[in-house]
Amino acid sequence: MNSEKPILYNYFRSSSSWRVRIALELKKIEYEYKPINLIKEGGEQFTEEYTKINPKQEVPALKIDGQLLVQSLPIIEYLDETRPDGVQLIPKDPIKRVKARIIAEIINSGIQPYQNANVIKKIAQETQSEEKKMEWIKFYLTKGFRAIESALVESSGKYCVGDEITIADLCLVPQVYSAFRFNIDLTDFPNVRRVYTELEKVPEFIKAHAHRQIDTPSELREN
Ligand SMILES: N[C@@H](CCC(=O)N[C@@H](CS)C(=O)NCC(=O)O)C(=O)O
What we know:
Blueprint: E1 7-10, H1 15-26, E2 32-35, H2 48-53, E3 61-64, E4 67-70, H3 72-82, H4 94-110, H5 117-127, H6 130-155, H7 167-181, H8 190-199, H9 203-208
Parallel strand pairs: 1-2
Antiparallel strand pairs: 1-3, 3-4
Helix pairs in contact: 1-3, 1-7, 4-6, 4-7, 5-6, 7-8
This protein binds glutathione.
The site of glutathione has 16 residues, from helix 1, helix 3 and helix 5.
């Protein structure tokens, strides 16, 4: 294995990047933070240099063990397999494992893509309407959170699956943050809110929070 310090290409508010930041914290892996500004004119994800790192022009990407890895969930699985000490992000028990992966997948493929920056930009362009864009976001986020709430009724304890932190929790926190950002009403999802409140207290989650990164704009910065 290569012993160079890992490099995480990411953006403070990107939910997929944030999942990996939490995993790196929980696994106690020191890393170099390389900000990729997704919203500045032109977008740094579209540069020739970054497209070589991630041809899909998205964050995160993680350089680790001499490998360049993309896609947050496989990255988290890799970290868990190669650093099995400490918090087990993918539960060993098959029932807990499938439940954690179901919640992670609802978020990864059933919510985040619908509110991804380039998708909502296109919706706004095609419809020429901010209102239609917000309707789209509200519809898909609410639909996704309804599915998560119903999964949590059955699987949650202190966290998404029982009382141990899993990959599902790494996906939940950034997605709830996005819901707040887009003013999605989570009143009907008490388990989502309860688990989120618990996770907000965990030191590694606090450190990985969008408001505490080197590229967090000063108006959002928290200590
Ligand atoms: N499935 C991918 C999703 C990556 C993704 O969509 N990243 C977003 C930020 S959360 C992005 O880079 N968007 C850039 C764009 O929309 O132009 C993962 O989990 O890594």
